[in-house]
Design brief:
By secondary structure, the chain is mostly beta strands. It is built from two helices and eight strands; from the N terminus they run αββββββαββ.
């Protein structure tokens, strides 16, 4: 049984860093995920859990596509082309990673991200309080 589990785990999608080409996103295929990461060109990475996503929108304004969402105290706005593919992966919970362009040549047939902004809005949400076992 452990061989079957190892085969399933090792068959996961590769990260965007596993190739010589820039990939704007990584989709797990048919395997739903608990969350995804946003990787910026400078190497900073933010994690987003699906159950805490809000305000997901895909809009076209003045000929440009914008994908935006909020997650607790973070707001993300992405500008590009063919972002519908990334939006659909988010809705299916199969999105694993979104990546800002990092200078590598772009892989063909990938959505193009031209600009990405991750900002903190309001007060950061504090981590949950640690549960302490009552003595008694």
């Amino acid at each position: 049984m452990s061989n079957a589990i190892n085969r399933i785990l090792s068959a996961g999608a590769k990260t965007a860093e596993d190739t010589n080409e820039y990939r704007s996103f990584v989709d797990s295929g048919q395997r739903p995920q608990l969350g995804f990461s946003v990787t910026r060109a400078n190497g900073d990475i933010d994690g987003f859990l699906y159950h805490a996503l809000d305000n997901m929108q895909l809009q076209t304004r003045n000929g440009a596509e914008y994908l935006s969402f909020t997650h607790r105290s973070k707001a993300v706005t992405i500008q590009g082309e063919n972002l519908r593919v990334i939006f659909r992966a988010m809705m299916r919970h199969t999105l694993m990673e979104i990546c800002e362009p990092d200078g590598r040549p772009a892989a063909p047939d990938m959505p193009a991200i031209t600009r990405m902004e991750v900002t903190t809005v309001g007060e950061p949400v504090p981590p949950p309080a640690r549960l302490v076992k009552a003595s008694g």
